[in-house]
Amino acid sequence: MVKKTKRFAALAMAFAFAASGLFAKPLTVKGVDGEVTIDIPDDVYNMVSGRVDEINNALRENGVNKSQIENAADMVNEAYVNIKDYIPTDSPFTVAENGLNDFCDDLADVIPNSQTQQNVYAEAWIGKLFPGFHFGAGVNAGVSALDVSTLKDAALALGVDDVKDINDTLVFPTITVDARLGGIILPFDIGVTAMSIDTSKMDSVDKAIDPVAIDFFTLGADIRYAIFQGGFMRPKWSVGAGFYYTKGGVDVDDDTAKASLDFKSTTFMVNTQASIKLLCLVPFIGGRALFSKTSVDWKVNAEWARIIAKESDTYYEGVANALKWGILPSSFSGSSSGFSVYPQVFGGIGLDLLFLNLTVSGSYDIASKIPSAAVSVRVAW
Q1: Which residues fall within 8 angstroms of residue 155, CB to CB, at 6 or more apart?
Q2: CA 88 to each of CA 81, 92, 116, 156: distance values in angstroms, whole numbers, following the listed order
């Protein structure tokens, strides 16, 4: 009778898993009183199966026997049967991992676009240093469209309900200081741009975006050579090249999850630009090619017992134990890196009022289909 009852319970659990789209796979681990084979949800099996030695060490250090292991595994499986009571997916590890990896790919495309929104001047060439002093310096703010739909999927799988109402497309911002100096003898100019932000060291900002902390650094430089030097009502045309380096990270420290994302991007750019001055207005148009190497790494440490269960649930303690012993992985990570070429078209208009220069520009990445824009205010002469 006991054997029939166990078979029926196992069959009922199998049907419940099938009905919820879940499957379990066997995994053999070793308690203090010998080996035991348990069922692991398919959603986490690949993460767990390669860490058997770590799990066995944790079981030994905590003095866990076979009965306790079987109970924890059963509670994890029960939690998965009821998982949609708390999150909108029955495969949270898979959805979170895939979502974060896909978001890294999107971020790797956006960062090079954001870099080239920096230090954009309406005039294709600002003039020589001698005779006459040609110089400009000010603040530049740029944005690039960033698809966060996959990040939302990952956040929902991690039990972060607050992201439901966020738009699928947000903006990736860049705020920099820049300067440009006219060339000497030859018709060229040189520009530099830089910015460093660490919100953890800015009390008011740190409190406003808590539990998120942002660390961001960017540095760039470019040179442009004037093929047509232009003049009053005559167009200017230049060709140039530039180099940009960006490094940053985002950390989130919440009650149910801790996450970190670090990115690094090195971009070489070649460009051409034409402009014409019409009284105080300077319309311009151009094209760029970006050669970029970008890497993004992420890591999540999730308190899954709080995400897929409540303390009042009968299976909560078993899930918590499974986490403690490694039967249910609490941390996982991923990355994205590679070299890509991004062709861009750009244009805009400048307003030149004595020593004040205002430039509004926009660009479009043809390969990644990413629109970007920037505005700058500078003192120039």
Answers
A1: 99, 163
A2: 13, 9, 38, 7
